[in-house]
Amino acid sequence: MKFVALIYAAPEAEPVYGTPEFDSLLEEYMQLSEEYSACGAFVAGEGLQGNDTATSIRVRNGQTELVDGPFAETKEQLGGFYLLECKDLDEALRLAAKIPSARYGTVEVRPVAEY
């Protein structure tokens, strides 16, 4: 069963890009991805560029509206994701709890709908 782990954090809570703290965090992510691969859970995972690069699209009554930034204003921003293959929700939650940003942000775990 596939699960997505959506990684949210407030920008001011994260280490600044280019600092030793950021490099250390990135190394933790690389090691975690290797761990996920070794146990067969890793399907995909990526970091995302900041909210200032986002464009939201709405189509209402046949009209397309583009809005700079994310759809919802929140303190925490979606920063990346892992797509994991797990036997059940318990395994997905156990693996997602290892995501480094969970220490200062939020990781939302959802099953992927299979159509």
UniProtKB/TrEMBL annotation:
Top-level lineage group: Bacteria
- Residue ranges of every copy of the YCII-related domain listed in the record: 1-114
Similarity annotation: Belongs to the YciI family.
Q: What name has this protein been given in UniProt? A: YciI family protein
* Species, as recorded: Shewanella corallii
